[in-house]
Amino acid sequence: MSEHRYAARVRSVEMSGIRKLFDAGGPDAINLGIGQPDFDTPDHIKEAAIAAIRAGKTGYTPNAGIPELREAICAKFERENDLTFRPEQILVTAGGSEALHLVMEALVDPGDRVLITDPGFVSYAALATFAGGRPEGVPLDETLHIDVEQAKEQMDGARLFVLNTPANPTGAVESEESIRALVEYGNDRGVTIVSDEVYEHFVYEKAHVSAAHFGDDVITVNAASKTYAMTGWRVGYIAAPEDYIPECLKVHQYAQACATSISQYAALAAYTGDQEPVKQMREEYRVRRDLLYEGLSSLGFEFPRPEGAFYAFVPMGRNLIQKAIEDGVIIVPGEAFGSKAPDYARFSYATSRENLSRAVGRLQALVE
User: Fold this and answer.
1) From CA 207, how far away is CA 218, in angstroms rounded?
2) pLDDT digits (tens, 9 = 90+) for 205-260
């Protein structure tokens, strides 16, 4: 049998270091590796999906998403972000992951430089590579925030800068001053800012600021996934200057056609319904954040207290990271997020307080 051939741009990308850990460990393992809320989707959202099924809303929808959902997303931006969008500027996607893919495919030409933070979310570099671009890491400072001045130096000649705040894997929330500086400098030099804001509702002491406040050439990516504990429903969206939408829509049409109809009606209920469950999740994450931070600090680990999302990024050393995983504390090694933090590990505290306490206990036995 002859050897099968594959596209070089695909072969050059490794499988996600996070997904490798999805089912890792034995029956007693404590999985702190997955960035997925452990809460159930709120009942009113599930009921809306059931009602849509019973009403026969199971066919294709408009490629860009049902009009009601696009209007609801515009209202969400007005209410929560003080930004004005029209439905023509919204494209509903199969999660934030597809939204990022569409942007890369529609905007990146072969050889284009795509700036991402290093460490940063695993998908950015892979998607840039699939689109033919050249991902380039931008360093963080000692507090795990973007080194703004270094980022400015690298922006000249780049095509995109992917800004993620609150950030995965670090839990850092960028200040309004930093976001403004990055957007204004980038837009002045023809760099499109792609602002990934999927964790915007999980900010603890600071405030979330949307990048689109500070420039016209900003594409906002967001999703229902984290905010409403809807990861498996796969509903995200792009909000962008109107001329970007048809180009992204071309890729979406041929790859996806439309986001799942039932999920769109569920998301409509999410964005227009009771927001109290989001507040409850945020407060529980805050408690878990403090429990994990204090537990790890008591063991001698030194790292910035996470400001948002539901991750802690902790310097441990590769040997201890491996021992922790072997002992059933499933964490993601820093090398999964780039080249600059191999001695760090990402902890997800989107799990119960009991699991977090047990994990700290197991680590205590390893460091004593």
Assistant:
1) 19
2) 999 999 999 999 999 999 999 999 999 999 999 999 999 999 999 999 999 999 99
pLDDT digits 0-9 by tens, 162-196: 999 999 999 999 999 999 999 999 999 999 999 99
> 236, 223 in Cβ contact below 8 A?
yes
CB 295, CB 356: distance < 8 Å: yes
Contact of 126 with 108, CB cutoff 8 Å: no
